[in-house]
Write a structure and sequence with these properties.
The protein is globular and about 55 Å long. It contains eight helices and seven strands, in the order H-H-E-E-H-E-H-E-H-E-H-E-H-E-H. A seven-stranded mixed sheet has the order 1-7-6-2-5-3-4.
Amino acid sequence: MQHFFKQIYTFWCAIVFIGLFLLLFPFFLIIISKESWHKHCYFLNKLWAKVALFLVGIKTQIEGIELINPKNQYVYCANHFSLLDIVSFGFAPHSVVYVGKSSLAKVPLFGYMFRKLHITVNRASPTNSYKALNKAIEKMGKDRSLVMFPEGGIISKRIPEMSRFKDGAFRAAITKQIPLVPVSLPDNWIILPDEKIPLISRRKMRMIYHKPVPTKGLNMEDIPSLKSKVYDVISNEIANRQIR
């Protein structure tokens, strides 16, 4: 019986998320039409995330937002165990550029919107990854922050333990000389597991922003220590937040 109710709930969630996106899609098209307007997708992302989660009864708990200055640029680094992680950054305090896997571009309508407003990357190709990172840095301009999942995708085999971090997010932060912000998402993998046919569970979605890690004056030789520091912050928070 519980499985049946989960199926019904998952179907309702799909209707809500897809329906809201279709309602907002014409507005995304307007924003897409002019490069200087791309930063305003922030408002649509926030509306989509807040309304959709409200309608499906998933409460949100955002912590540490007071540590973030919405006028500054950052590179946000978060664990990545679920597709819901992308939705979570609808609650970012300012406009962001995502770096996502190239398969997202194949999703009807959403893929078109994503590749126009954000950056897709073929992580199997080092050359493509390098070019995508440079495009992301360029797309940030002076008024958008960058969201990267430094594991390089949902690849951990022992969730909620993270996979090793790749260098991209840390290279971007050092290149721009802007702070890194570790972000812990301890519940998304339980709400929306990374399965072929996932069933959604209704529970609180928590998002924890940690103290920004400065990179001013650092160079590429500092990447290993930065990766270790950010990894430990996120990993320890996730471990402490797990519901047993």
